[in-house]
């Protein structure tokens, strides 16, 4: 029953996502990745997607959800980053000539390849001064637990054997996702979303940084 309610909640959220604007979508193509067999697919097949999503409800009003995925990037990583809002004012700025307006506090949930839970907070440096520093609380699973963490596909196969389908998408979830992506594909067909090229081993298209800045989010690939 709990799994069923969770799936219904996921579908409700997906159906509440606002229509993606072309200016909030970046489609990229790695210069050194081959996709398909034909010359057209080699030149046109996207290998990178980034977008800013907004959920149209009271709880998440005005909160951007930034996603990106791609091939040929410098780091192979699956993670969720939660940036906390800036608080009004800066107590430390009044007491020092330096601008100590650092990045916001951050919670990072990392799945692969190094499973971890990280918390980054702005912390006052001990002493009589008024200087801030970024401190990290690190729970790295491979250092904490002497067990082998199964990879994603191994976990899915285990769930299939056990008859547990909570990690699999239902047809109504798939339909809700396609309702989000179909307008993007239509805009691509009209050439309203250009294909951005990027180098193998890079962070992806440079325009992604400007997309994050547009929505006041600093996304560091560390």
SSE arrangement:
Elements: H1 2-15, E1 25-30, H2 39-44, E2 48-54, E3 64-70, E4 78-83, E5 106-112, E6 116-124, E7 132-140, H3 141-144, H4 152-162, H5 171-189, E8 195-198, H6 207-214
Parallel strand pairs: 1-8
Antiparallel strand pairs: 1-2, 2-3, 4-5, 5-6, 6-7
Helix pairs in contact: 1-5
Keywords: Carbohydrate metabolism, NADP
Protein name: Glucose-6-phosphate dehydrogenase C-terminal domain-containing protein
GO molecular function: glucose-6-phosphate dehydrogenase activity; NADP binding
Give a description of the structure.
Helix content is 28%, strand content 25%. About 2% of the residues have low confidence. The two termini are 39 Å apart. The longest helix is centred in the last third of the chain and has 19 residues. α1 packs parallel to α5.
Key phrases:
single chain; about 220 residues; alpha+beta; Dihydrodipicolinate Reductase, domain 2; four-stranded mixed beta sheet; four-stranded antiparallel beta sheet; 8 strands
CATH top level class name: Alpha Beta
Residue runs with pLDDT of under 50 for 5 or more positions: 38-42
Domain unit count: 1
- List the secondary-structure elements in sequence, H or E: HEHEEEEEEHHHEH
Q: Which class best fits the helix and strand makeup?
A: alpha+beta
Radius of gyration: 21 Å
Task: Say which CATH homologous superfamily is assigned.
Answer: Dihydrodipicolinate Reductase, domain 2
Strand residue percentage: 15-25%
Q: Main sheet: which strands, in order across?
A: 3-2-1-8
């Amino acid at each position: 029953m709990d799994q069923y309610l969770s799936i219904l909640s996921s579908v409700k959220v997906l159906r509440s996502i606002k229509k993606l604007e072309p200016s909030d979508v970046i489609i990229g193509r790695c210069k050194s990745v081959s996709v398909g067999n034909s010359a057209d697919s080699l030149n046109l097949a996207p290998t990178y997607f980034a977008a800013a999503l907004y959920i149209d409800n009271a709880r998440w009003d005005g909160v951007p959800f930034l996603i990106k995925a791609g091939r040929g990037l410098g780091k192979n990583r699956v993670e969720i980053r939660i940036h906390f809002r800036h608080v009004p004012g800066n107590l430390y700025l009044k007491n020092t000539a330096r601008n100590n307006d650092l990045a916001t506090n951050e919670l990072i949930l990392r799945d692969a390849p190094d499973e971890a839970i990280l918390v980054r907070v702005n912390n006052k440096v001990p002493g009589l001064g008024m200087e801030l520093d970024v401190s990290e609380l690190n729970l790295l699973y491979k250092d904490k637990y002497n067990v082998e963490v199964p990879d994603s596909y191994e976990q899915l196969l285990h769930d299939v054997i056990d008859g547990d389908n909570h990690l699999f998408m239902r047809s109504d979830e798939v339909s809700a996702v396609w309702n989000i992506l179909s307008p993007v594909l239509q805009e691509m067909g009209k050439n309203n979303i250009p294909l951005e090229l990027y180098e193998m081993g890079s962070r992806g298209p440079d325009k992604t940084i400007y997309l994050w800045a547009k929505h006041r989010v600093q996304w560091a690939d560390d």
